[in-house]
Structure formats: C-alpha cells, structure tokens
Amino acid sequence: MSTTAQNQGETVTPATPAADTAGVIALLERGRTLATPVLRAAVDRLASPMDTVAAYHFGWIDAQGRPAAGDGGKAVRPALALLSAEVAGQAPEVGVPGAVAVELVHNFSLLHDDLMDGDEQRRHRDTVWKVHGPAQAILVGDALFALAGEILLELGTVEAGRATRRLTSATRKLIDGQAQDISYEHRERVTVAECLEMEGNKTGALLACAASIGAVLGGADDRTADTLERYGYHLGLAFQAVDDLLGIWGDPDATGKQTWSDLRQRKKSLPVVAALDAGGEASERLARLLAADAKKTEAEFADFDEEEFAARAALIEQAGGRDWTSQEARRQHATAVAALDQVEMEDRVRAQLVALADFVVVRER
C-alpha cells in the first residue's frame, strides 16, 4: 500500500464497533415518524404527474398508483437531524424541517444518480427512470431540490437562513462528487486521495449537513455546528466505505442491487483504488484487466458474464482492497466519534450519536 493509503487516519486506532441495533432502529423509526408527514405534504405540492412519480420513488405507491408500504431507505439523515436539534438542547421536532430538507436533497441525488448510472433497481423495485422515463426522473429530482429550500426558508427565521446556506453548500459539494465519480469511471488510475475527496463530497457533505442542521435551527453557534459537521463528514466517509464494500460483495437480497454492481458500472470505488495502489501480482493483473475494460464499448462490457466480474472481485480482494476499505471505514468511524468530545451535550444524546455511527459501519445494506 502506498504512503497515501497508509497515512489515512493515522491518529485513530481501527476498532470494530458493536452497534446498539435496537436503539438505532428506534432512532431511525422516530425520524421516519416525525419527518414523513411533512415530507408527504411537501411532495403533494408538486404538479401532476410529478407528485405521483415522487410518491413512487419514496415507496408510498406502486407502479400502478396503488398504496404501498415500500422500503423508504435507511433514514439515517433524518435521524441525525433530529439528534442534532437535541444537541442544541431543543426538542427533536425542531429539527424536522432540516430532516425533510436534507431528505429531499438526498432523494434528488438518487433520482439523478440512478439515471446517470443506468441503475434499474433501487430498494428492490424498478427505479423511477425505468418506470416513468428519464425525463420524469430529471424533473422530479429538480423539483425535490427546489422544495428543500422552500421548506427551510418558509420558517422565516435567521436560523433558517443559516441552515439553508449550509444545505446549499452541501448540495454543491454533492454534485461536485457525482461529477468526479463519473469522470473517474473511464480513467485507468485514480489515487486514494482523489477517491476519498470524491466520496467526501458525494456522501460526506450531506451527512455533515444532516448532523448539524437541527442544531442550527435550534440556535446553536457556528462552532458547535462546524464540529457536528466534522462528525457527520467522517461518518459519511465511513458510510461510503461500507457502501463500496457492499457494491462489490453485498448480498443482492439485502442491498436490492445486482451482484458486483459497482464493477458493472466501472466505478473507481475505494476497494478498487486501494487494490490498484497496493502493488504486487494481483494488483498488476487487476490493472491490466481494468485498462482493457476501459477501452471496451458499453455494449461489449455489457456482454461480460458473472465469472468475469467475480474474477475482478477476487483480484481486488487478493490485492488487499477489501481489507483496506474495511479498515478505512473503522478509521473514519473513530474520527467521527472523537469529534463528539468537542461539543457539550447530554450523555444520552452523545450515546445515541455514537450508536448511530456504530450502526453505519456494521450494516449489511
């Protein structure tokens, strides 16, 4: 492994967290319970058929428009926003507008990502562009982004303006990260530092915003909000590292995606980049295969069978990419948790933020 890879997170000791699963599930459910009615009301503002398309995306209806109890996602961001309000000494309800705004931006990005990546499945269902067409996926994504700003600014407070600025900045970084991700797909080499920068933008920025936005709405000062953002940013890097592992080795029944999904999309995710950076026979063989893959047309690449993707996954593992990414998830987790020591809060709230961080690292979907 290169010096760049080795130096990531030197100040923390990797450790395997033990998630309080029952406690975290309760936090996630609280986030859904408080945020979903406001989220539904926001979606109801959209013109037809965008309201219906958005409802399908959120899992509230099926493709025929019938009520459904679909999987609405992990709801980590709403849970963070409500806990963030409690850090500022406020009731969790104070964080609800922030939770909804962040969730709208997150789903705006999912709608566009699915289309750009050609993903046909999300949460065990056909994606919006597959059911309703690319145009609707783009329009509904744009509409959700616009709604996010409305939800916050309608509060009409100084704190709402501060929260909106943070959300807007996080959204720009998220888009930067998506652009970087796409540009890396057809490059032969991407450095570990570049990959971490991309993932910090694409995932870390919005989780950082979620972890601070409730506190901002609750009147917390910038120092507190900035420190909570650091927690959320490093939690986002841990979250994405786990996602990268699941994108190659995840169980399709749990993730709702195809086997080897990130390899099918030629993504330069952390396991791939770390494996290429490692040196050695497996790393060199992987580099030759990926260099050849980059020259293939989409049609040629689509003809690959399961064995070819399995061979690439095996080389990534042999070169150490899987183990390094697992360790990186734990390093980022430890850095996130350490940031909480710099903010005064109730012990109960601190324990819940730590439990949520633990859950992110040990999840299977």
UniProtKB/TrEMBL annotation:
GO terms of molecular function: metal ion binding; prenyltransferase activity
GO biological process, alphabetically ordered: isoprenoid biosynthetic process
Name of the protein described by the UniProt record: Polyprenyl diphosphate synthase
Family as reported in the entry's similarity comment: Belongs to the FPP/GGPP synthase family.
Alphabetical list of CDD domains matching this protein: Trans_IPPS_HT
Keywords: Magnesium, Metal-binding, Transferase
Gene3D superfamilies: Farnesyl Diphosphate Synthase
Pfam family, one: polyprenyl_synt
Organism of provenance: Streptomyces bingchenggensis (strain BCW-1)
